[in-house]
Amino acid sequence: MYSSRRYLASKFAFIQLVLWLLCSSICFGVIKGATAEDVTVTVDGTVPISRVSDKYLCATIDWRSAPATCASDGLSPLLIRLGGTLQDAVIYDIGSTNRPCLPFTPDPSQHFGVAGGCLNMTRWDDFNDFFNQTGASVAFGLNVLYGRENNFTAGQWDPSNTQAFINYTVSKGYDMFAWELGNELDIFIPASNYARDARTFRNIVDNIYQNSPTKPLLVAPDALFHKDWYQEFLQSIGPEVINVTTYHIYNLGKPNTTNLEDRIFNATFLDQVKTTFINMSILLKPYGSSIQPWIGEAGGVVKGGSPLISGTFVNSFWYLDQLGMAATYGTQVYCRQTLIGSIYGLLNKTTHEPNPDYYGAKLWKDLMGENVISANVTENPNLRAYAHCAKNDTGSATLLLINLSNTTDFNVSLILNGSTGCQEQRLEYHLTAPDENLRSQIILLNGKALDLSPDGQLPEFIPLVENSSIPISIVHTSIVYVKLLGVSLLACTQP
Ligand SMILES: *[C@@H]1O[C@H](CO)[C@@H](O)[C@H](O)[C@H]1NC(C)=O
Ligand SMILES: *[C@@H]1O[C@H](CO)[C@@H](O)[C@H](O)[C@H]1NC(C)=O
Ligand SMILES: *[C@@H]1O[C@H](CO)[C@@H](O)[C@H](O)[C@H]1NC(C)=O
Ligand SMILES: *[C@@H]1O[C@H](CO)[C@@H](O)[C@H](O)[C@H]1NC(C)=O
Ligand SMILES: *[C@@H]1O[C@H](CO)[C@@H](O)[C@H](O)[C@H]1NC(C)=O
Ligand SMILES: *[C@@H]1O[C@H](CO)[C@@H](O)[C@H](O)[C@H]1NC(C)=O
Ligand SMILES: *[C@@H]1O[C@H](CO)[C@@H](O)[C@H](O)[C@H]1NC(C)=O
Ligand SMILES: *[C@@H]1O[C@H](CO)[C@@H](O)[C@H](O)[C@H]1NC(C)=O
Ligand SMILES: *[C@@H]1O[C@H](CO)[C@@H](O)[C@H](O)[C@H]1NC(C)=O
Ligand SMILES: *[C@@H]1O[C@H](CO)[C@@H](O)[C@H](O)[C@H]1NC(C)=O
Ligand SMILES: *[C@@H]1O[C@H](CO)[C@@H](O)[C@H](O)[C@H]1NC(C)=O
Ligand SMILES: *[C@@H]1O[C@H](CO)[C@@H](O)[C@H](O)[C@H]1NC(C)=O
Question: With the CA atoms of 30, 31, 35 and 37 taken in that order, what torsion angle do they form, in degrees rounded to the nearest 10?
């Protein structure tokens, strides 16, 4: 795996110089019509404002998708959430079940538009081989409608099939990082009923895992955020049942929304979802750290994504901003819908090639550590700034800077509070679109297209090395990770 240290140690400075010259003419040339503006980003490195899980980056797979080996494993070890819309239609072919084990067939008369739905244990074994080979951690979404199929509202969950399934999973030694109960059912199941079923679930899991050294997290309810419902759910469930509460974010709209791009490049629009993060953190305050918030599913655009947006560089302005924003408000895990599948997959479902968001996530994984520190820019809302302690580099920090404007380039001066070191140099990773085509499925890193090698290996992520005495230059509609070298922030001295 590539590391910037190894790069620095092994390459000659003149290569960097050549790259810098090359890139400065390509990416930093004066673009006709673009204006430059000086701004200041203030980073408060005295104390972390929050801390994300080491599994912050997460991606979903629909449990029907083949356990395909991915074109590359740059995000591994990844947390994978196996679940989604059809999880509440799936039975497990073990023990006695209330209907035969049949594959999904389309059936518009049924709630999810399908009849059948069954996971046999051979297939479950295959999934686990895949997880084992890729080193993935798994959050598995269980069916909470079993037994209440005919009356979602007042019926009661029958846990017997789930119990048999978990028993099988434990007997095979398959480690689950988390078990999740139900998917997007808050509009059907009253909060107090859901809480009752979750308590049943806690007893089952405690019983099965009582002699087990590792205990999975219990997660619920994976719904869209409806404040009143979540409030009632949390109040009726209390602090000692679930470990995690999850909600889903699809804040961009429908695939056919005419102004999707205008929404993504509109800072006011992007900020609207902050109230959701804030409201969730207010609801969770009484529980201290005993219940943590996750984003269980986030795809931006609903229903599989939008062809011109979701697999292209445009989407990275939404996705990377979300990763930054969610972490700022205490979210522990952020599951992107999807790893592979539909239009919004991180990997192209046909070619298995990474799309721009995959590369953005890869850089996040390599550069952004777990402690979140505050970063503010006040002069212009079109520059978005987030900061974390650096990955694998005690004391240091990485900034994520997003320029939403299509006309303004920014020259960013940094004010670092709480630093005892001396900024020497910094590593810059500029992401831009080729030929200013933001709807491109290809992105450039420091002016050079990112692409897999013929044998499917990820490219090297070669930073520009800049002197800290000059401002950070961020061209219009670009995204930049900046890793600071030589600094020692108080918030980042504990690994
Ligand atoms: C298990 O399920 C898979 C996929 O649904 C199917 O191809 C396979 O035939 C099933 N195996 C058994 C033993 O039923
Ligand atoms: C994969 O399975 C083997 C054998 O059960 C086990 O020793 C190993 O720890 C597993 N690896 C992962 C990443 O779960
Ligand atoms: C569900 O059960 C409740 C309580 O028994 C009943 O009032 C309601 O009519 C039932 N709904 C349906 C669709 O059967
Ligand atoms: C599952 O295992 C638990 C505890 O090991 C046991 O009490 C229960 O009867 C088992 N249930 C099924 C359905 O296999
Ligand atoms: C999950 O919650 C249970 C019940 O409160 C608790 O016993 C367990 O320690 C929690 N797990 C983690 C990893 O916090
Ligand atoms: C988008 O599609 C929905 C149905 O899926 C339709 O109701 C709506 O009018 C469409 N909107 C536009 C702008 O085409
Ligand atoms: C620049 O962005 C504005 C607002 O999103 C948009 O209306 C305009 O078409 C964009 N201009 C170019 C050249 O892309
Ligand atoms: C930006 O989004 C806000 C909130 O949705 C909206 O009120 C405003 O009109 C949008 N601005 C532009 C230029 O579209
Ligand atoms: C957040 O809470 C405020 C105050 O109760 C409420 O007005 C607002 O609608 C909530 N927003 C969301 C997205 O839940
Ligand atoms: C997948 O890649 C192919 C070939 O480049 C492209 O035509 C297609 O639009 C891509 N699919 C998505 C969903 O981005
Ligand atoms: C961080 O350090 C761990 C443990 O030394 C190593 O496995 C991992 O590859 C490093 N990650 C990066 C991005 O350098
Ligand atoms: C700075 O940003 C943090 C979050 O990154 C926020 O909590 C704080 O209120 C901001 N401070 C100012 C002065 O805007």
Answer: -60
Cα 363 to Cα 4: distance, rounded to the nearest angstrom: 11
Q: What is the mean pLDDT of residues 41-63?
A: 95
From the candidate CATH numbers 3.20.20.450, 3.40.50.720, 2.60.40.1180, 1.10.10.10, the one assigned to the domain spanning 31-48+375-492: 2.60.40.1180
Distance 265 CA to ligand 7 centre (A): 9
Active-site annotation holds for 424: no
Q: In this structure, which ligand is nearest to the CA of 399? A: 12
CATH code given to domain 54-369: 3.20.20.80
Domain ranges within the chain, ordered by starting residue: 31-48+375-492, 54-369
Q: Is the CB of 1 under 6 A from ligand 11?
A: yes
Task: Name the least confident of 1-10, 309-318, 334-343, 463-472.
Answer: 1-10
Question: pTM of this prediction?
Answer: 0.92
Q: Kindly report the CA angle at 173 between 168 and 179, in degrees rounded to 5?
A: 65
Nearest CA residue ID for atom 14, ligand 10: 311
Closest-approaching ligand to the CA atom of 256? 6
Whether 184 sits among the annotated catalytic residues: the reply is yes
